[in-house]
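Title: Comparing notes on inverse folding

I've been comparing how different people in this forum approach sequence design from structure. To keep things fair, I'm posting one structure and asking everyone to reply with a full sequence. Here's the target:
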């Protein structure tokens, strides 16, 4: 009987996929596991490398080589792999990440077997910037709490502290995915919210994987100055708000307000006086800030025309 289904999602990862698969097949476990590799119609040699590993490990590696790209920001590829998982638990992995501890799967399985009240567990991971633009850093710091609940996953800022390669969750909990999940560019945040509705997450304080940031990754193609990305995030959080029966409405509204303020300064709208001011005012309305300094800053930067602020500054300088 298969205990764990490892799902690997890849697209144009020929430089990394071998290291990814090596880190999986080298796991030291006392149970049977499968590795479902969903390739989203890569244009490089990724499918060939996956096929080579399937021939080498025919009882473990199960390729799912899509002839055309599935779309949906890679989420349709993910859902296709999830549909065929046979394991009691699921461990996800992106095709450019890798595990660094050969006992990673065993440690997570042991915990979930012994703690049925938890829906998932995760561990720390190292963030490695492939282009060298930043020094390596850890996803989790010393303040990370052992137990995560749905309340911890909702905040006035965007909450993210679980690398894809670090999470293992129970199979069968997530069956129907809502419309907002499919429309969101993010995959991890919506999945953790949906899982969090059913139980707690446990943090294993060990670094057991590497989250690689590279020029071809989603984190590099999305940007907080791009209106399309920002509107997508707003839609995602409105979906989360409804999904959680508006229990955290005020908190989520403050998060949405952040994205409207980013819209005011986005590439598409920063030079549009009318829309930029509209989004800035909408941000103020949603956030209802009690902080007068924040309120003043938003008005000075986005609402009051810059030429008026310049005149005011000159006049104030001459008087004082």
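Reply #1:
Here's my take.
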């Amino acid at each position: 009987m298969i205990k764990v289904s490892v799902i690997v999602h890849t697209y144009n990862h020929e430089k990394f996929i071998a290291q990814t698969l090596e880190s999986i097949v080298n796991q030291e476990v006392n149970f049977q596991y499968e590795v479902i590799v969903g390739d989203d119609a890569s244009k490089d040699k990724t499918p060939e490398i996956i096929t080579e590993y399937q021939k080498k490990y025919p009882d473990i590696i199960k390729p799912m080589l899509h002839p055309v790209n599935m779309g949906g920001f890679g989420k349709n590829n993910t859902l296709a792999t999830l549909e065929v998982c046979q394991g009691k638990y699921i461990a996800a992995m992106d095709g450019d990440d890798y595990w660094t501890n050969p006992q990673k799967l065993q440690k997570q399985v042991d915990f979930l077997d012994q703690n049925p009240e938890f829906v998932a567990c995760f561990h720390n991971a190292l963030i490695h910037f492939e282009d060298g633009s930043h020094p390596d850093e850890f996803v989790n710091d010393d303040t990370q709490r052992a137990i995560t609940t749905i309340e911890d996953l909702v905040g006035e800022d965007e909450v993210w502290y679980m690398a894809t390669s670090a999470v293992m969750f129970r199979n069968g909990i997530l069956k129907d995915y809502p419309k907002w999940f499919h429309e969101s560019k993010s995959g991890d945040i919506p999945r953790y919210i949906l899982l969090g509705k059913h139980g707690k997450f446990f943090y294993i304080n060990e670094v057991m994987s590497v989250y690689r940031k590279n020029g071809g990754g989603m984190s590099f193609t999305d940007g907080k100055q791009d209106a399309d990305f920002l509107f997508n995030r707003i839609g995602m959080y409105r979906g989360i708000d409804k999904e959680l029966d508006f229990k955290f409405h005020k908190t989520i509204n403050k998060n949405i307000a952040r994205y409207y303020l980013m819209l005011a300064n986005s590439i598409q709208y920063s030079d549009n006086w009318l829309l930029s001011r509209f989004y800035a005012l909408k941000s103020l309305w949603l956030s209802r800030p009690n902080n007068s300094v924040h309120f003043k800053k938003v008005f000075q930067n986005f609402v009051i025309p810059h030429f008026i602020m310049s005149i005011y500054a000159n006049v104030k300088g001459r008087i004082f």
